[in-house]
Amino acid sequence: MNRKKLSYNNIFFNGPNPKGSDKVSVFNMLNTLYFWLFFYLPQTLKGEKRANFQHSSFREGVKNNENCIQERALVLEAQLDLKNIPKWFYPTPKPLLPVGRVSLFKKVNHSLILQCFHPIGLGQKSTMKQSIFNLFFFILFIAFSSCQKEPVETVFFNFENTPGVFITNEGNFMYGNATLSFYDIEKKRIYNHIFFARNKTPLGDVAQSMEIHNGQAFIVINNSGKVYVADANTLEFTASITGLSSPRYIHFLNDQKAYISDLYAKAITMINPSTYEKIGKIDVNNNNPDFYQHSTEQMLQYKNLVFTNCWSFDNQLLVIDSNTDQVIDSIEVPAQPNSMVIDKHHKIWVLCDGGYPESPYAHERPALAKIDAQTLEIEKVFRFKLDENPSGLCINGSQDTIYFINRHVYRMDVAEGQFPEIPFIESDFTGVYGGFYALSIHPNSSQVYLADAIDYQQNGIIYRYHPQGHLLDSFKAGVNPGSFCFKLE
After folding, report:
1. What is the fold, at CATH topology level, of the domain defined by 164-487?
2. Fewest C-beta atoms under 10 Å: which of 177, 250, 342, 426?
3. Closest Cα partner for 143 from 108, 95, 91, 98?
4. Residue 428, pLDDT above cutoff 50
5. What is the pTM of this model?
6. Domain ranges of the chain
7. Cα–Cα distance between 245 and 243 in angstroms, integer?
8. What's the rounded mean pLDDT across residues 289-307?
């Protein structure tokens, strides 16, 4: 997710142990109370605006997801008769409190929390009396939830021998509402909120990416600073890798070593994917006094060399020797390389967004660069228009055709020397915002998977296209579907 990160992480608890107790800990209660007393309440009294979260869209998404455990909140909601609570009971500024953090208590339901705190009277002004009264009700609500005896029902999935695609839904930054979806290609059926349904705990804040290794799904949760590991067939929790700064992607070298890139750590974390333990770090700090470098993003490998693109306020591809776990070289590319792939001719294609207007680092024409993986030389650079914003570079299974988003979807044969001018798949959006949000190509069928985040607040739409460009299917996933992970068996 290419958004500027805030530094409120330490305020929040990083989430419950899915195998832990069902009881509400005093620490969890104090932690949430701390947030409301020292962060939300003061900001509410100041009258500062908060990011929107569409309650109606969330509720619509819950109704549409038949496998979502959160539907049970409707029953509890009816029992508490929350709809009869007067409008003045709600604070006008919409809370920044992440949904997933509130549901640390497991028995507390997302939808119910939103019903308790989401404003109805959007034009009303918040007062100290209203805010304190809401805080008092919130404490009573926690006490009520902790006394419940009925646990959240667990849904047991089994996707064994089921080819499909996992979709990591980022959610909204600082809301903790990231989710995981699975699409059964043969049945044309979407399963949403599957991690929560299986483990009775939310994913966390911003699901960035996911990879499958030896039957285990490694789900990178960016703003929660952790990686969840779960069985790729049942989604049952296996382990968690915590203490990360802002993890982005994971790359497996073998069964004993994997790299985890990071936006802020100025280092790549090394783990053992068999034991889920950290085994070291690769320092990528260049001690630049002006910009926070280097961030690390995607990773790809050629022989023993691992390449990673430095996107945020940067213009480098770092070259790492996987035998020594050291940075041995770097390649300067156009500003802010956001994605990259390697083709069948061992050429690395790097898509650079060029920065943005008024950026302290760069605002230049975006570019697509072609680099020889062996010589590390840039062979060619294609330039976009200054006001364009390309992203999501990917490649098909035969590694002979690249695809990228530039509002529409374009494709290009790697052997061609001419930049594509006609879109392969067109987007209906023509305004300032809109267009496709994420893109991936099935490695076997070459079918095109596209995500549309719509307004970045409601559940996004996934489009599945034939390799020749005609639409095969579409369905709704979660909020801000940002990446795909294909399950081939």
Report:
1. Methylamine Dehydrogenase; Chain H (2.130.10)
2. 426
3. 108
4. yes
5. 0.72
6. 9-146, 164-487
7. 7
8. 96
